[in-house]
Amino acid sequence: MRKKKHEDHVNHEAWAIPYADLMTLLLAFFVVMYAVSVVNEGKYRVMSESIIEAFNGNNKQIQPVQTNSATAPAPVPAKRSTSTTPPSLRPRLAVALPSQSLPPQMTQGSLTTREAAQENLQRIQDEVQQALQPLIDRSLVVVRRTQSWLEIEIRTDILFPSGVAKLSPDADTTLRSVAGILAPFPNPLRVEGYTDDKPINTAVFPSNWELSAARAASVARLFADNGVDPNRMGIMGWGQYRPAADNANEEGRNRNRRVLVVVMGDQQGPARFYSDADRAEPAMAEAAPAAIGPNARAAHEIAPPAGHSPLPAAIPAVAVPAVPTGSLPVAAKLRTVQIAPAENG
């Protein structure tokens, strides 16, 4: 009888060996990754302290390399960074850059530039109101505050005689006190001049535009002479075309004859084209960009060029944007007028 051939059994567990090898390799891989990712706390602390000391500029000595020579070099003291900033500008830079050391009155932790500027606005408002309270009580000075700027409105009755741009003796005292308040702060500011609708036509002032711009320049020049940085200032002359009241009566004309000192909240703040924004009509505000034109600069950008005298004897041409046609009796286009200096006497 023929012997039956025995069939080999199929090994169904052959996959376990390569699978075990794969798991072993994966385990080894993750162990290596974990070992690489673990940070040595001691080394990390030393490295972080070294970086902090390098940026803080601590006055430490550089340790020389140890050699076998008997004449090893002496330790070299690290030089502290010296600032070439003039002392008069250091308080302004401290407020404008909150990461630097702030003066005691501004120490509030880590203030942003905008927060510091808003803090400055509030302090300026408080100090101006305290210094000019007698004039405020007589309605000769008005202080207004918005989120983006501060307005100090001064009636020209206490600043200039009629028809001239030379400051009166009483105005000198008032404006010097305002300049003393504004000088320590870095906020940009603009001086705006306004008149009533009474026409003027002289050799010095052919129109109210020239008169208003010359008066604004006189105030800005006094500010510059009393410590306010000229690079922060600009002037504008609106003439009779931004009335705060009706020119039909004497009281309204007195209100319209004014000088406005506008202190901006910060250098990146919104452009402010109109002095009395709370009284401006929406249509006038919407038409302002079209009336000014593409080549005109924003009001807060009008400032003296670097390297030049901030307020020269002959005041340069001042761009005065006109209002929309129909609102006032002027064409809605950019007008350029030549401003002459105010005569002495």
Automatic annotation (TrEMBL):
CDD domains xrefs: OmpA_C-like
GO cellular component, one term: plasma membrane
Record field: transmembrane: 20-39
Protein source organism: Dyella marensis
Name this protein carries in UniProt: Chemotaxis protein MotB
Localization per record: Cell membrane
Keyword Transmembrane helix assigned: yes
Membrane topology: Single-pass membrane protein
NCBIfam families given in the database record: PRK09038.1
Taxonomy, superkingdom: Bacteria
Domain annotation OmpA-like: ranges: 147-267
Keywords: Cell membrane, Membrane, Transmembrane, Transmembrane helix
Source species taxonomy: Bacteria, Pseudomonadati, Pseudomonadota, Gammaproteobacteria, Lysobacterales
Region forming the signal peptide: none
